[in-house]
Write a structure and sequence with these properties.
It contains three helices and three strands.
Length: about 120
């Protein structure tokens, strides 16, 4: 029985860490990384790159200078990587909730706030 309570405590701690990490990553995603994708157009045998994203259902394009294309692509790739991590953490949170039950988690969270 001691092992079960240790496992339960570890899962609860992991749950809290995931929730906190998701908040931190979402803040970074919203404030530090570009959304959208890079498209390339060939005009008169020259390559032009554009950052494109949707706003209010409309496609918005912004020209990217050639020296910034790699930086913009890396920024977008990092955003996508963080979004995948957040998705995986949300899945883990759901697994913990189904294993422990939301009542047990809420009880733990309310005790944590009090102490």
């Amino acid at each position: 029985m001691q092992q079960l309570s240790m496992i339960k405590a570890e899962l609860l701690d992991q749950y809290v860490r995931f929730r906190h990490s998701i908040d931190v990553y979402n803040d970074k995603i919203q404030n530090e990384y570009l959304k959208g994708y890079v498209s390339k157009k060939v005009i008169r045998n020259r390559d032009y790159h554009y950052l494109q994203w949707r706003e209010n259902g409309k496609l918005v394009s912004k020209y990217i200078k050639p020296e910034h294309v790699t930086t913009v692509k890396n920024n977008i790739n990092e955003r996508k990587r963080l979004e995948r991590i957040v998705k995986e953490m949300r899945g883990s949170i759901k697994e913990i909730e189904s294993f422990l039950g939301k009542r047990e988690i809420n009880k733990y969270l309310s005790e944590e706030v009090i102490s």
